[in-house]
Design brief:
CATH class of the domain at 404-666: Alpha Beta
Oligomer: single chain
Strand order of the largest sheet: 29-30-32-31-33-34-35-36
Number of strands: 36
Keywords: Hydrolase, Signal
Largest sheet: 8 strands, mixed
Protein name: Peptidase S9 prolyl oligopeptidase catalytic domain-containing protein
CATH architecture of the domain at 404-666: 3-Layer(aba) Sandwich
GO molecular function, one term: serine-type endopeptidase activity
Signal peptide: 1-18
Number of helices: 13
CATH superfamily of the domain at 404-666: Alpha/Beta hydrolase fold, catalytic domain
Organism: Adineta steineri
């Protein structure tokens, strides 16, 4: 009896050791993640359009592929892998065609300047080119039938030949105009000519275009290449009964995005980005959802009592809306039947829901979902009330389900100055969840109007899983200015755009040290865009960080305001223009505190970045070089702010940042790895010993 009990104990110990462990996520695997930028149901509800995006290493580009998913047969059909993403593909009214743009906008013969849009026919499974001319397309929308499309294009300056290659900044860069055409064609008879009819010219760029048969209107949003005057971002319509009249739907100094029409075409829904009023009409707020009654112009706000940010929505078949609402680090699904009703929460999985769409003819819904423990895929559910039972209809990121992703938890602390509670995410190294005395990498999100979320989006600017695989505890703070914590929390950085969120972050680091979670002598910091702003600021405020990673960060905000494409953001955050509040521009600028820096700093920037001017990185590099601080600057050719042209650039960025961390951040990590290896070898030896020992016991029973 004693031997049997002893054997049972040995078998239990052996079973604990024999649990299959997942492999470590490799550096190359990390960068082969697939995302889903677009989902759209056909009008019949029988098909779902899916766009995937993944790196194409052999072509030095990103591959944007369009797929057709058959709901009933649960099959996926390839349409094109050469999708141009500046304009979203659109279903025809009948659901028999899809119109889209290709990267090869101009025809195959390079000598011809005529461009095409492309029509995919579900019936014949063919792609038909439709010639549209040599202007650059801006937006398109189907009419009320499958034979005509409204197309907005950028006007060509006929007098440009007088200026040769000379640029008139205000006229050539900012004050661009658009032309709206109607394109008529017969997809069933390609021998018939395409007819192109002028609707009218407008004195601004068009961002999105919609047609509604209710009152025969063409609705569109205006835009500008530079965000300095929010009057440039409004909603307009043309009544086809009098196309010479251009009517304004809004005059609210907010940026209207994600336009959708109600099923009956009588209401226009849109998300609003309240961004930095020039006329001081309002403070910045989180994203909101509104609708306009096209009959009387009344604007109604949805989710009015929701304290978070509304990141997306779709219109229900019964006229209500499904809302993607962010609270803290989670984005969940809510619904609202009428604007006067409270939001209804739909119980689902913890994590992030995005790109939600619903079928008008059915109650089915599709969305993209991920969490920090589950990779991104597209899901489908027949009824939103059964959200927890939704099934994945893609399997693009299966590899990541077989890898040891880091365990993460939400962490809270207080700013010691005003006792504000701040929240963030802690990503633990493998097999070290809840461990103590860990080396720390602070990764700061951009924005500032964004947040670190319970969402798995593996990319060059979201690389916490790679850092933890190298032994770092990664801390992602949702500092003041982040979304998901209320409008007041977001607006509290005004006039203190770096010092207040900077103090939030430093207080978080202090608390991690007090809690024994972090080794105070092994600290690193880094961030991209606004995260780069804060990284540059923090290394002027403390010498505690051994290493810094500054990506697309600024150091002087007078010159940044003068050169960037969103100057309204800076003038709002700093409480006025540089000549109005010069003391704030000086006090809240790293360049004037650079002599305090002692941290080896790695810097990256895009050659053509106009969001955060490339010159800011050169200023930082030169200043640190003069101060004899170890510094390295990498510039990526032809890239803008988002490094979206060549995937190798993002991969090289992270590769070099990891090298910089290893060189300056934590020299003892190699010893930690050796100890881990020794412990693993001991574990395997113990398992083998238990196996043979139990075999001997069994033979002697």
């Amino acid at each position: 009896m004693l031997i049997q009990l002893y054997l049972l104990l040995l078998l239990q110990i052996f079973s604990c050791f024999s649990i299959e462990t997942k492999s470590k996520l490799s550096f190359d695997e990390f960068f082969n993640y697939t995302t889903f930028p677009l989902l759209k149901f056909s009008s019949t509800g029988r098909h779902l359009l899916i766009q995937t995006k993944r790196p194409s290493w052999n072509t030095n580009s990103y591959e944007n592929t369009l797929w057709l998913y058959d709901i009933q047969n649960q099959t996926k059909k390839f349409i094109t892998t050469n999708l141009r993403t500046s304009i979203q593909p659109q279903w025809s009214p009948s659901g028999n065609y899809i119109v889209f743009l290709s990267k090869n906008h101009t025809s195959i013969n390079k000598q011809q300047s005529e461009g095409n849009i492309y029509l995919y026919s579900l019936g014949s499974d063919t792609v038909l080119p439709i010639q549209i001319g040599k202007e650059t397309p801006l937006a398109l929308a189907w009419s009320n039938n499958d034979s005509s499309i409204y197309l907005a294009v950028k006007s060509i300056d006929e007098e440009n030949y007088l200026w040769k290659d000379v640029i008139q900044y205000r006229e050539n860069v900012i004050r661009k105009t658009s032309i709206i055409y109607r394109i008529d064609f017969n997809a069933n008879n390609r021998s018939l000519p395409v007819e192109k009819s002028l609707i009218r010219n407008v004195s601004f760029l068009i961002n999105q275009l919609l047609y509604t048969s209710f009152g025969e209107k063409l609705i569109f949003s205006s835009a500008s290449a530079v965000r300095e005057n929010l009057d440039d971002f409004e909603l307009y319509f043309i009544d086809f009964r009098n196309i010479s009249a251009l009517s304004k739907l809004t005059n609210n100094e907010i940026i209207e995005t994600a336009l959708q029409l109600s099923i009956d075409g009588q209401h226009l829904f849109f998300l609003s980005l309240h961004r930095s009023s020039n006329k001081k009409l309002f403070n910045d707020t989180q994203n909101r959802l509104y609708s306009i009654n096209l009959a009387n112009g009344i604007i109604t706000r949805f989710g009015e009592h929701f304290n978070g940010s509304i990141n997306g929505y779709t219109i229900e078949s019964d006229g209500g809306v499904y809302i993607l609402g962010q609270l803290g680090t989670e984005i969940q699904i809510y619904s609202q039947k009428l604007s006067t009703k409270d939001l209804i929460y739909h119980n689902g999985w913890n994590g992030t829901y995005e790109s939600i769409v619903s079928s008008y003819n059915h109650r089915s819904t599709a969305f993209v979902y991920s969490s920090l423990e589950k990779p991104m895929e597209v899901y489908f559910v027949d009824n939103i009330s059964q959200l927890i039972s939704a099934k994945a209809i893609t399997n693009e990121n299966y590899l990541f389900t077989q890898r040891n992703l880091p365990k993460t938890k939400v962490y809270n602390w207080r700013n010691e100055d005003d006792h504000r509670i701040i929240e963030g995410l802690l990503h633990y190294p493998p097999e070290k969840f809840q461990s103590k005395n860990l080396p720390l990498l602070v990764l700061i999100h951009g924005g500032p109007y964004a947040a670190s979320l319970n969402r798995l989006n593996l990319a060059w600017n979201n690389w916490a899983p790679l850092a933890v695989s190298e032994g770092w505890l990664v801390f992602e703070p949702n500092y003041r200015g982040s979304t998901g914590y209320g409008d007041q929390f977001l607006s509290e950085i005004r006039a203190k755009p770096l010092s207040r969120p900077g103090k939030d972050i430093l207080c978080g680091v202090d608390q991690l040290i007090k809690d024994g979670i972090v080794d105070p002598y092994k600290l690193a910091v880094g961030g991209f865009s606004y995260g780069g702003f804060l990284t540059n600021w923090l290394i002027t405020q403390t010498k505690r960080f051994n290493v810094a990673l500054s990506a697309a960060g600024a150091v002087d905000f007078t010159s940044t305001w003068g050169m960037m494409d969103i100057p309204a953001l800076i003038s709002y955050l700093y409480g006025g223009f540089p000549w109005e509040v010069p003391h704030i521009y000086q006090n809240e600028a790293p360049i004037y505190h650079l002599d305090k820096v002692r941290t080896p700093t790695h810097i990256v920037t895009g050659e053509n970045d106009v969001r955060v001017p490339t010159s800011q990185s050169y200023i930082l590099e030169r200043g640190l070089r003069y101060l004899d601080i170890p510094v390295k600057l990498i510039t990526f050719p032809k890239e803008g702010h988002s490094l979206s042209i060549n995937p190798w650039h993002g991969k090289i960025k992270v590769r070099e940042e990891l090298k910089w961390l290893q060189q300056y951040g934590n020299q003892s990590l190699n010893r930690d790895k050796s100890n881990n290896s020794e412990r693993q070898n001991f574990s395997y030896a113990l398992q083998l010993y238990m196996f043979f020992f139990s075999s001997v016991i069994i033979k002697n029973i």
